[in-house]
Fold these 2 entries.
Entry 1:
Amino acid sequence: MIGRLNHVAIAVPDLAAGADVYSGALGASVTAPQALPEHGVTVVFVELPNTKIELLEPLGADSPIAAFLERNPAGGIHHLCYEVDDIAAARDRLVAQGARVLGDGTPKIGAHGKPVLFLHPKDFLGTLVELEQV
């Protein structure tokens, strides 16, 4: 059902500083910041040959990333994103197997302009999982 690893998301307290680590110290290509108000974050993507790293900064105090950073002030891995061919079919299969989809179960449009949804970390070995339709 799942395809390739699309990205690893890292929550950061300072997006510009995080981007500088990847572009400066590691010499990676980093995209321009993109605000996603519907998700409560501003993101950049570090583009790697085999996947991406998504750096997330809270967009306002109500952002779920703000709550994550309260518990982890230096930041840290927030979620893993896997690609799926059909997000509705993947969701339905997972729900039938007992997995919990966060929110109302309706996919939202993510940073890549494609439908995404999140799965409860308690159902996936303590890891928040994002599915993105490709």
Entry 2:
Amino acid sequence: MDENLNVKKTPFYEKHVAFGAKILPFAGYLMPIQYASILDEHRAVREKVGVFDVTHMGEFIVTGENAEEFLNSITINDVTKLAVGQVQYSAMCYPDGGIVDDLLVYRFADHYMLVVNASNLEKDFNWINGHVPARVSLTNISDETGLLAIQGPKSFATLQKLTKVNLESIPFYHFAEGELAGIPMIISRTGYTGERGFELYHSPKYSDKLWNAIFEAGKEFGIQPIGLGARDTLRLEMKYALYGNDIDQTTNPIEAGLGWITKLDKGDFIARDVLVKVKEAPTVRRNVPFEMLERAIPRHGYKVFANGKEIGVVTSGTQSPTLNKGIGAAYVSAEFSRIGSIIEIDIRGKMNKATVVKAPFVPSHTL
């Protein structure tokens, strides 16, 4: 257990133990991988309501009179389009166009909050801090922030019992500040599952009270705790990108399918010149969603072939609990990126046919 000596516990760790979770180190924390089964937890979120401990995510506060201009210069989306109370999905790039991380940008009346991937927390902070100009301040509040995600068709009914904030009045990718279960917090409506739901940012001193209140409120709906295993199958059914799998410093936003958040006309930002050239040049490869045509499960790192020639690699893959078939995402040569293209996945030496499809794999119910 020596390797776990420096691993942190979230404020919900004892809850995970009490629910019988399988717990493993992940991104510097001891995190629940699954409780009962990934299949059962996945279906709970699609059909009822599930609770994710995502306290391991990183949160940074950016303040100062030049905060907007600064954030616009280090992210690829257009921060100036954000209204107070709005959230924006974005990414940061290295000068060569490789992706530092994807992240969320929250706009408050007098500051911004960035939410970054757990595994990139230290790297992201150092990257951002290395570019901070005069009259801008960057603060890491990750250790002072507890975070639960409540997702599923019964998430609104569960949480509305606990707050006077009208949850239906919060549009997708917006947030409100208020009390829930008598606890002050940020109630944010984003999500990583394709279902309706919220993220609750709060002080860890209230985490135990918050967990108990939510599970009591959701009891009638069959509420369940959800581990990282089902979090991955849920996000892949939406083809949401996962840093370290689908995107990293060797991939750029255009080929990764994130052109929709890459605002090349907003003015200068890190890697803009490179990304303009990428967009203008003939596409070399694309990250595409695919479904298996044979009974097989694709996994990260498996090679992709077409007509006997290697054309790419699987970045994410799983057995879809909703579709009951293998699904995945892969970088493939551009000529095979069109919907309907037939490709083959090398799974332990056997070629298994698949077809490129349109994302998401299952309908989104976020609105």
